[in-house]
């Protein structure tokens, strides 16, 4: 009888446990990033190495124009970068925001974690730190980003993200000043899923060590100095090897107010499966902003994973990538939005 119970619980553990570790999961169909992270793990690298290599690949590939140099120019036409990386074992974090002149934002974020006692550096000071750490200073502008900026100017600086201000009446462009009326100067803003986007990545090894990271060039036509959710711990990503990891993407100005990645990890800590944790994190935001654009990926300590997204006209299904020992390659996954 005792032997039978032992076998029963062993079989239950094998069913509930995951036999496909290590694991890499990232937002969007960024296959080259998944492959780079997977190769890092297979080559004996750590989960931090995997997240850094995966996000860096996306930075160099300029994934979807929303990660890395040459994308999402701000109101002045400049591209700036945000990134973070988190060690789920030690709970150490490195993050950079409004980074200028440096292409490898995720690398700088890791340098903040490993070369300082700080958690986040921002703006020009972050760029100077990066240069002091040996990162090359390069122009992040490309012909494509110049063209995006030029077309925006020709369109009277629309869309923009100012509200309750008075623009130049002849162009709708700045300089801007405050006005009393509580109306947005550019009317109803349309959601463009390619104007603000992120690679969020989770890596887990066979020993259960977890790491998470993000990299983005932010929001097209943003007000200079704007920082979204990506480099904010618990918003853009969060990892705790004793509970799970999560990473988010989408309308960062809204999503960062709810710390969805932290919430999802805490839900998994309390027993929620990854899909349910992801859905709950999205639902929390929907209660206040029903039409926000966003999605989240989650993985728990057994290597099970899931995703969820908010359904809007431009996003009815969310695509993400997974690599594990079963596939041994990057596989495209999708989840219907709700």
UniProtKB/TrEMBL annotation:
UniProt record, GO biological process: proteolysis
Binding locations of substrate: 226-229, 249-252
Keyword Hydrolase: yes
InterPro entries: Ntn_hydrolases_N, Peptidase_T2
GO molecular function per UniProt: N4-(beta-N-acetylglucosaminyl)-L-asparaginase activity; peptidase activity
SUPFAM superfamilies: N-terminal nucleophile aminohydrolases (Ntn hydrolases)
Protein name: N(4)-(Beta-N-acetylglucosaminyl)-L-asparaginase
Organism of derivation: Xiphophorus maculatus (Southern platyfish)
Task performed by this protein: Cleaves the GlcNAc-Asn bond which joins oligosaccharides to the peptide of asparagine-linked glycoproteins.
Swiss-Prot/TrEMBL keywords: Autocatalytic cleavage, Hydrolase, Protease, Signal
PANTHER family on file: L-ASPARAGINASE (PTHR10188), N(4)-(BETA-N-ACETYLGLUCOSAMINYL)-L-ASPARAGINASE (PTHR10188:SF6)
UniProt superkingdom: Eukaryota
Record-annotated site: Cleavage: 197-198
A Pfam match: Asparaginase_2
Span of the signal peptide: 1-19
Family of the protein in this entry: Belongs to the Ntn-hydrolase family.
Keyword presence, Hydrolase: yes
Active site: 198 (nucleophile)
EC number: 3.5.1.26
Catalyzed chemical reaction(s): N(4)-(beta-N-acetyl-D-glucosaminyl)-L-asparagine + H2O = N-acetyl-beta-D-glucosaminylamine + L-aspartate + H(+)
A single cellular component GO annotation: lysosome
């Amino acid at each position: 009888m005792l032997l039978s119970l032992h076998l029963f619980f062993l079989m239950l553990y094998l069913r509930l446990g995951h036999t496909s570790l290590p694991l890499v999961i990232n937002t969007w169909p960024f296959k080259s990033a998944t492959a780079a992270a997977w190769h890092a793990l297979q080559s004996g690298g750590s989960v931090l190495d995997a997240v850094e290599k995966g996000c860096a690949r996306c930075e160099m590939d300029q994934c979807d124009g929303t990660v890395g140099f040459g994308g999402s120019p701000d109101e002045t036409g400049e591209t700036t970068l945000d990134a973070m990386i988190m060690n789920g074992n030690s709970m150490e974090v490195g993050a950079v925001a409004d980074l200028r002149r440096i292409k490898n934002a995720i690398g700088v974020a890791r340098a903040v974690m490993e070369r300082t006692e700080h958690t986040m550096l921002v703006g020009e000071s972050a760029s100077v730190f990066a240069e002091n750490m040996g990162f090359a200073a390069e122009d992040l502008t490309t012909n494509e980003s110049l063209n995006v900026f030029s077309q925006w100017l020709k369109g009277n600086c629309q869309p923009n993200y100012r509200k309750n201000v008075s623009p130049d009446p002849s162009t709708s462009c700045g300089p801007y000043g405050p006005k009393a009326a509580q109306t947005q100067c550019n009317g109803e803003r349309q959601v463009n899923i390619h104007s603000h986007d992120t690679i969020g990545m989770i890596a887990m090894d066979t020993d259960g060590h977890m790491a998470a990271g993000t990299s983005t060039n932010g929001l097209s036509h943003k007000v200079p100095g704007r920082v979204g959710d990506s480099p904010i711990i618990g918003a853009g990503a969060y990892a705790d090897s004793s509970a799970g990891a999560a990473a988010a993407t989408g309308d960062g100005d809204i999503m960062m107010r709810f710390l969805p990645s932290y919430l999802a990890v805490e839900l998994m800590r309390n027993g929620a499966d990854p899909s349910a944790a992801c859905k709950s994190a999205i639902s929390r935001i929907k209660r206040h902003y029903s039409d926000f654009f966003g999605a989240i990926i989650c993985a728990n300590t057994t290597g099970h994973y899931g995703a969820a997204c908010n359904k809007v006209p431009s996003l009815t299904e969310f695509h993400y990538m997974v690599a594990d020992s079963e596939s041994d390659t990057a596989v495209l996954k999708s989840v219907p939005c709700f």
